[in-house]
Design a protein that fits this description.
The chain has helices at about 5-20, 25-30, 35-40, 50-65, 75-85. Helix 1 (about 5-20) crosses helix 3 (about 35-40) and helix 3 packs across helix 4 (about 50-65). The chain has one domain (about 5-85). The radius of gyration is 12 Å and the shape is globular. The chain is mostly helical and about 90 residues long. The protein starts with a helix and ends with a helix. About 65% of the residues lie in helices and about 0% in strands.
Length: about 90
Amino acid sequence: MSDFSNICIILGTLYENYRDDINFRDFIEFNDLGLPLAYFTKEGLAQTSEDGNKYILETWELFVSSLGLKDTGFTTLEEMFELAEKGSK
């Protein structure tokens, strides 16, 4: 399973770089708490509470599932996109 700090980095990067991407619109809108919380945590702007961590982890589970992956310990968003692309071929 991925480390919580890596989860925040990956989701924060997704939010930062893809929040205006039409392909991620539904996911971004549905996860309107977990993604910004992960971004703020990634940037060191906030520390999440136990409830905040739950939102981030729920968002993570949805993201991993949406890519058709199993959490094997990811470290980057690019790694996840590459694995998802390989799996779809």
